[in-house]
């Protein structure tokens, strides 16, 4: 028979290491002292020893006794010689006790044996504890009651072998600090071992806690738990409003412990384009696009072998696209599971279809007591939602039969019940019931179970719609044009006619919220509204019946065009962050507007909208989607005004450059430039010429870049555009700097800075200071670089320019790293990375990751450095950033050299040098040549190393880039080793002369050929 007891499991920390250190004799004495102390305490605290290894399994009658024992046990161990530390876990629960006979004990059995789930639960709890710490389960905490004055929770933890997360507690003992479970290095060891011992709060995902309670569905949840252990694809089917989404989300929340690598919701209701299914899933998981790669494949690669659950919600209108994505994930990701809500199955092999039934209904054949009726799922839902509308409402003997009948008449459909309950603000249960009878007259003649669920739900929505006033009906229909929600100002654009006055929109909208037809949410301190998908589809059908749908879709597009065009100049200002967030929030509406206008006579609107969104798509890392929309809009509006086409072409060119598609970028930018020349728009010409120069610079064509930047500069000087002059000077200065022409670069930067100071343009002052600081860092003038970057950062913080702040933080962090101030550098770079991720600036995030990798390498943390550089490299490859790729490859090559992995280092440096040779990038080629020289020395080829170092030294002189001070000692030591490894100085000098004789391209060819 099972009995509830307190089980305490202890374990002496580092016992094996201690025993090895002490030796056999001293170790035996240590264990004798431990056992004596532990057993003496058992007598005091009325405990029994069940088992003994490096610790003990102990049984107590009460949790208070077990806690008292644990406190004394930790204190006594600290007084032993040597002092010992143990961890302990306490659980209270049912155990099976078996007393063995004396004869069994004589044959080796233990006097008392314990079985049951309580034993492994105590063991799992103990395994999470740190030395000197006792952790308690929630059951043990409840059993303690008030016996201990203060207990602190460590939150819920998902444990290996235990389905439900356990909340863990610790008794606060005086002023002793409370340790976090799995704190420090132990946490990393457990994570690497693959155990699922992590706080539930740290399990990644995007599920939000529901705002209303989840009622009923106990059987369905139990079944879904079981099925998730047996099947990788579950599809919840049923009619609209039956509760598929809410059941799926609840099941996912409760399954987090089983999916420690993440539980993610992919909301599909707002999508109309099947091509965006994979991208929407990737965005939900934070997966970045990879240039030239299918988004679905990128998502599958990201998930890999991770134990992950994806919830695809509202898949029925995108069934084919969802099926393709799900099939790929199941095929390539062994540990992924998918929970899909849809009105029909996907039709895939291995799919387990789960029909979501209505909520439990009251038994129509017998009169239930109030308590029994209140326990019925559908009645519980009606009562709770009714009380939310009318707190005075109660289930009574007078209304119980009517409430039960309402739930039965509505077939237990949750959405229908919630709509009916919403009427309890102004109607009684009897009045609600009477109106249902009137509306459902057609449904009483046949078998209710034979009727389609959608027909039943539509009947209820018809009834709700019929109760609305004219203005409420009109607004509800018009709101169906929104995708993913809207704000009050957007809703006000749906007015201005005889049916709705703009000033009345707020009151009408609030009335629709009160009637549960519109949902209101708070986002960032302001209200946002949305329709449930079923209501949106119903309202859309009604809008079509009214015959004025095109008018309101046009109005919707006009509103979001105004939003996008207002945002465009502010995306490079101090107001960048809120506008980026607003556009991201409205992305589905922007897509809907583009879809509509691209297919109608409003194609010029589509082109204006796409052109206005180009900067948003660039900053947020959506270049592929942006290019697709721009291409469609350009094709749909071939006769659009030249200025509109020019802006769209320019935006497409910038996005192509972002992806490293330079041929397409130059073609589109050239097209835009031609249009600006036709228009005689000198300012536009200057901007486009500058953009064309940037493409040529990134392709390594410095002569063309210099000429284009100079042309842009001349036009802007002619126009008196001092801000533009400063921008062109900064661009021209960058060419000079990359060519090692520091005097000319300084002239450009200082003139730009002087202009900025004259204008009082603090935003551009910060840019010029940043550029000057970068050049001083190139010249190893670190103190000057630091001062310039600090001034730039101060200005940008004052202005709230988030993207600029991140840039200055990165540059200042780089300088501090070179100065050896690693902790300060890491702090700045982590802030930079956080800002860039917050802004969705993927290119910038890659730079911050690269810089953090350098700090980790400087600190000797090679594993972390490699992880950071690999992440930076992956992002740069995805963006097509070839310069960035080469830079990351060089850093990874240096790390491979430090690990003495010559083969890996050679491959990394060779790939980098190939890119630099193609780009004409002499600056970074110095690092690749030097790296390959280090590889040659590592491979015991000192003559080859001397040749490559000599070639790199000549290139340094040509570029004007002296060896950084921090690298000089190591470089001198490597040269000494290479010279010593050769037979005589003459051999070294000969190799050196040969290397000095090579031009940099020839040296690159020699190095790459050798690397093969």
In short:
With 1012 residues, the protein is of the alpha/beta class. The chain is built from 46 helices and 16 strands.
- Tell me the β content: 5-15%
Helix percentage range = 55-70%
- Main sheet overview: 9 strands, mixed
The helix/strand class is alpha/beta
Give the N-to-C terminal Cα separation.
Answer: 74 Å
CATH top level class name of the largest domain: Alpha Beta
Overall pLDDT metric = 83
Count of discrete domains = 8
CATH architecture label name of the largest domain: 2-Layer Sandwich
Shape: flat
If helices are DSSP runs of H or I spanning 4 or more residues, what is the number of helices?
46
Radius of gyration: 35 Å
Count of β-strands: 16
CATH T-level topology of the largest domain: Alpha-Beta Plaits
Low-confidence stretches: 183-196, 439-456
The name of the CATH superfamily of the largest domain reads: Nucleotide cyclase, GGDEF domain
Plain-language structure description:
The chain has 1012 residues and is an alpha/beta fold. The chain contains 46 helices and 16 strands. Strands 1, 2, 3, 4, 5, 6, 7, 8 and 9 form a 9-stranded mixed beta sheet that branches. It has a 5-stranded parallel beta sheet with strand order 11-12-13-10-14, sandwiched between helices. Strands 15-16 form a two-stranded antiparallel sheet. Helix 2 (24-45) packs antiparallel against helix 3, helix 26 (603-619) runs antiparallel to helix 27 and helix 34 runs parallel beside helix 36 (802-818). The radius of gyration is 35 Å and the shape is flat. The N and C termini lie far apart (74 Å).
């Amino acid at each position: 028979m099972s009995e509830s007891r307190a089980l305490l499991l202890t374990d002496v920390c580092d016992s094996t290491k201690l025993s090895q250190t002490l030796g056999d004799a001293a170790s035996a004495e240590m264990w004798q002292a431990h056992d004596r102390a532990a057993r003496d305490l058992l007598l005091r605290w009325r405990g029994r020893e069940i088992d003994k290894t490096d610790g003990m399994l102990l049984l107590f009658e009460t949790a208070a006794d077990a806690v008292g024992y644990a406190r004394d046990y930790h204190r006594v161990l600290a007084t032993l010689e040597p002092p010992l530390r143990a961890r302990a876990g306490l659980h209270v629960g049912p155990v099976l006790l078996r007393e063995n006979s004396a004869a069994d004990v004589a044959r080796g059995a233990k006097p008392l044996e314990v079985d049951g789930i309580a034993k492994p639960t105590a063991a799992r709890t103990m395994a999470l504890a740190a030395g000197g710490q006792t952790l308690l389960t929630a059951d043990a905490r409840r059993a303690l009651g008030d016996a201990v004055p203060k207990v602190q929770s460590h939150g819920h933890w998902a444990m290996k072998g235990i389905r439900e997360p356990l909340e863990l507690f610790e008794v606060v003992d005086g002023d002793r600090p409370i340790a976090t479970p799995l704190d420090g290095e132990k946490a990393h060891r457990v994570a690497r071992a693959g155990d699922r011992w992590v706080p539930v709060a740290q399990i990644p995902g995007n599920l939000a806690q529901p705002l209303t309670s989840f009622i009923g569905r106990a059987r369905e949840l139990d079944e879904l738990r079981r099925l998730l252990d047996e099947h990788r694809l579950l599809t919840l089917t049923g009619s609209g409003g039956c509760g598929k989404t809410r059941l799926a989300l609840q099941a996912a929340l409760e399954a987090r412990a089983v999916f420690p690598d993440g539980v993610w919701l992919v909301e599909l209701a707002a999508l109309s384009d099947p091509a965006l299914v994979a991208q929407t899933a990737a965005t939900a998981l934070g997966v970045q696009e990879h240039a030239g790669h299918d988004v679905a494949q990128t998502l599958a690669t990201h998930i890999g072998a991770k134990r992950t659950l994806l919830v695809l919600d509202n898949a029925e209108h995108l069934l084919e696209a969802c099926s393709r994505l799900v099939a790929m994930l199941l095929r390539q990701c062994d540990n992924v599971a998918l929970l899909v809500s849809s009105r029909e199955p996907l039709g895939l092999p291995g799919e387990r279809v789960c029909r979501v039934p209505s909520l439990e209904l009251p038994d129509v054949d017998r009169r239930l007591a109030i308590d029994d009726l209140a326990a019925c799922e559908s009645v519980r839902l009606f009562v709770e939602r009714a009380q939310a509308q009318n707190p005075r409402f109660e289930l009574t003997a007078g209304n119980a039969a009517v409430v039960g009948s309402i739930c039965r008449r509505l077939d237990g459909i949750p959405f229908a019940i919630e709509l009916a309950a919403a009427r309890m603000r102004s109607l009684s249960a009897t009045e609600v019931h009477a109106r249902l009878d009137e509306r459902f007259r057609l449904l009483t003649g046949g078998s209710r179970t034979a009727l389609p669920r959608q027909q039943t739900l539509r009947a209820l929505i018809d009834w709700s719609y019929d109760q609305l006033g004219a203005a409420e009906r009109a607004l509800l229909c018009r709101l169906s044009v929104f995708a993913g929600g809207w704000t009050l100002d957007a809703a006000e654009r749906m007015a201005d006619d005889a049916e709705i006055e703009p000033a009345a929109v707020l009151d009408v909208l609030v009335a629709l919220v009160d009637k549960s037809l519109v949902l209101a949410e708070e986002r960032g301190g302001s209200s946002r509204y949305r329709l449930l998908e079923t209501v949106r589809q119903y309202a859309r059908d009604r809008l079509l019946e009214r015959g004025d749908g095109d008018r309101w879709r046009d109005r919707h597009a006009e509103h979001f065009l105004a939003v996008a065009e207002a945002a465009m100049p502010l995306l490079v200002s101090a107001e960048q962050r809120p506008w980026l967030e607003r556009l991201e929030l409205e992305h589905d509406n922007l897509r809907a507007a583009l879809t509509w206008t691209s297919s109608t006579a409003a194609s010029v609107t589509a082109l204006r909208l796409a052109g206005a969104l180009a900067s948003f798509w660039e900053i947020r890392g959506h270049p592929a989607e942006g290019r697709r929309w721009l291409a469609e809009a350009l094709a749909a509006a071939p006769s659009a005004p030249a200025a509109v086409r020019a802006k769209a072409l320019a935006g497409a060119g910038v996005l192509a450059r972002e992806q490293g598609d330079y041929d397409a970028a130059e073609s589109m930018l050239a097209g835009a430039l031609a249009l600006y020349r036709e228009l005689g728009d000198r300012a536009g010409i200057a901007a486009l010429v500058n953009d064309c120069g940037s493409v040529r610079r990134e392709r390594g064509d410095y002569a063309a870049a210099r000429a284009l930047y100079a042309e842009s500069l001349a036009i802007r000087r002619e126009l008196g555009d001092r801000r533009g002059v400063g921008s062109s000077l900064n661009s021209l200065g960058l060419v000079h700097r990359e060519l090692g022409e520091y005097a000319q670069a300084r002239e450009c930067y200082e003139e730009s800075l002087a202009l900025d100071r004259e204008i009082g343009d603090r935003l551009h002052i910060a840019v010029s200071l940043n550029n000057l600081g970068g050049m001083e860092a190139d010249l190893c003038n670190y103190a000057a670089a630091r001062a310039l970057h600090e001034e730039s950062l101060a200005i940008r913080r004052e202005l709230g320019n988030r993207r600029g702040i991140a840039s200055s933080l990165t540059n200042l962090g780089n300088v501090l790293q070179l100065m050896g101030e690693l902790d300060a550098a890491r702090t700045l770079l982590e802030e930079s990375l956080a800002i860039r991720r917050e802004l969705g600036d993927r290119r910038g995030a890659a730079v911050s990751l690269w810089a953090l990798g350098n700090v980790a390498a400087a600190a000797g943390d090679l594993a972390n450095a490699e992880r950071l550089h690999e992440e930076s490299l992956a992002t740069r490859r995805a963006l097509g950033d070839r310069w960035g790729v080469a830079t990351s490859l060089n850093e990874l090559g240096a790390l491979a050299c430090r690990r003495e992995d010559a083969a890996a280092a050679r491959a990394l440096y060779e790939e980098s040098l190939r890119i630099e040779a193609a780009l004409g990038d002499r600056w970074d080629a110095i690092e690749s040549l030097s790296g390959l020289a280090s590889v040659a020395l590592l491979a015991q080829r000192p003559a080859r190393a001397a040749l490559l170092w000599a070639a790199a030294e000549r290139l340094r002189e040509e570029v004007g880039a002296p060896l950084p001070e921090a690298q000089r000692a190591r470089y001198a030591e490597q040269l000494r080793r290479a010279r010593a490894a050769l037979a005589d100085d003459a051999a070294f000098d000969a190799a050196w002369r040969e290397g000095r004789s090579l031009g940099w391209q020839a040296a690159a060819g020699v190095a790459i050929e050798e690397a093969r």
